């Protein structure tokens, strides 16, 4: 039987913030601003659907020189219109105290081709709408820290 390795802490979903981002707003910039304006430092994107003028994502690809043998490729931009089928992610605090987001999503291009990947800031302008719900988590610090084992900055749930 394989060893189970996990790092976790129990917290609570303490508040939800339904929102709509309006046309032209960058998806990640807009979500981050809503978090900051509402004092959300630790949380999750519970739901997000809508449309984009263009999609800018990164995909985890093989990389021989990386410690894991894989890493993110350079950002790629796909022209729209793009349908957002769903976005999930973590709202966390950086080591220097800033609010940040780590989002992944599934999308559909104008030919119906399904795409997916890691969202990139400043490259995903809303076309018609982004309908989303933010869930704030309390009783836990959701951080992003350097992980020596993987040589990546990764999610780190910690006591408050």
Characterization of this structure:
- This protein is mostly beta strands.
- The protein is built from one helix and ten strands.
- Strands 1, 2, 5, 6, 7 and 8 form a six-stranded antiparallel β-sheet that branches. The chain has a two-stranded antiparallel sheet with strand order 3-4.
- A hairpin with a 7-residue loop joins strand 3 and strand 4 (70-72).
- The chain is globular, with a radius of gyration of 16 Å.
- The chain starts with 11 loop residues before the first strand and ends with a strand.
In summary, what is this structure?
This protein is mostly beta strands and 160 residues long. It is 7% helix and 58% strand.
Notable characteristics:
160 residues, globular, two-stranded antiparallel sheet, 60s Ribosomal Protein L30, Chain: A, 58% strand, mainly beta
Topology:
Blueprint: E1 12-21, H1 27-37, E2 43-58, E3 60-62, E4 70-72, E5 76-93, E6 99-108, E7 114-119, E8 126-138, E9 141-147, E10 152-158
Antiparallel strand pairs: 1-8, 2-5, 2-7, 2-8, 3-4, 5-6, 6-7, 9-10
Tally of separate domains: 1
- pLDDT < 50 stretches: none
Helix percent reads under 10%
- State the shape: globular
Count every beta strand, where a strand is a DSSP E run of 2 or more residues. Answer: 10
Percentage of residues in DSSP E strands: over 45%
How far apart the termini lie comes to 33 Å
The total of helices stands at 1
**CATH C-level label:** Alpha Beta
- Name the CATH superfamily assignment: Hypothetical protein, similar to alpha- acetolactate decarboxylase, domain 2
Class derived from helix and strand content:
mainly beta
**Helix-strand topology string:** EHEEEEEEEEE
Arithmetic mean pLDDT: 95
Radius of gyration, in Å, reads: 16 Å
Q: Specify the CATH architecture.
A: 2-Layer Sandwich
CATH topology: 60s Ribosomal Protein L30, Chain: A
Question: How can the largest sheet be summarized?
Answer: 6 strands, antiparallel
